[in-house]
Design a protein that fits this description.
Helix content of chain A: 55-70%
CATH class of chain A: Mainly Alpha
CATH superfamily of chain A: Winged helix-like DNA-binding domain superfamily/Winged helix DNA-binding domain
Oligomer: homodimer
Mean pLDDT of chain A: 96
Radius of gyration of chain A: 14 Å
Strand order of the largest sheet of chain A: 1-3-2
Strand content of chain A: 15-25%
Structural class of chain A: alpha+beta
Number of domains of chain A: 1
DNA sequence: TTATTATATAGATAATTTTCTATTTGTCAA
DNA sequence: TTGACAAATAGAAAATTATCTATATAATAA
């Protein structure tokens, strides 16, 4: 597996250590969602949502697909696999 | 799988979103370590180390075993498996 | 072009987390 | 019991993060 810095590993899991971001991931579990839809479900302002989506995308676990004015977010299978692999390696599972 | 609150899920992954805690987990990869040994390797004061060990133990990923004056920490296979399962479930892997 | 809508950015504040020093608690050995 | 050592706790400061309001950017539609 590719060697990541400890800083990068922490960045990956930073995606998962906030309750609102966990809620967002739950919403993405059923497939791609537009940011505007996520806004309806999570009780934060639009700029706060934008911040959370940036953290999620920076981790690689989520990807955004721009389509006109909208951005459709979804779970990245590759990013998720990397996170799972790193966790496994880190904990010797 | 057992149903966890979003707050609890965030608590699990909080263990993994700090660079020093990742370093600690790397040290535990080779087996149980005494807190005093971890202190030698990670450049923080004893109370700060104590704080990090608490966060790691609260997540369930690490367990401490008290032996006299010392506490020996190790990765909990059960805690690690739970974290891996939650991550898998959350990202549909 | 102008208006409208989706998202991002800037900048500030509040909340949380990390870190420290000082002290306390618990355990063992003289 | 006293001294030494390991770890935890209290309390404060520093750093980071989450959140907001206001504004800017980008894309579409009229």
């Amino acid at each position: 597996m590719m060697k990541l810095t400890d800083k990068k590993i922490a960045e990956i899991f930073k995606a998962l250590c906030d309750e609102n971001r966990i809620k967002i991931l739950h919403l993405l579990q059923t497939g791609e969602k537009c940011a505007c839809h996520l806004n309806d479900e999570i009780n934060v302002t639009q700029p706060t949502m934008s911040h959370h989506m940036k953290v999620l995308c920076d981790s690689g676990i989520v990807v955004g697909r721009k389509e006109g004015k909208w951005i459709h977010y979804s779970i990245s299978p590759d990013g998720a696999k990397l996170a799972a692999d790193v966790l496994k390696e880190l904990t010797n599972i």
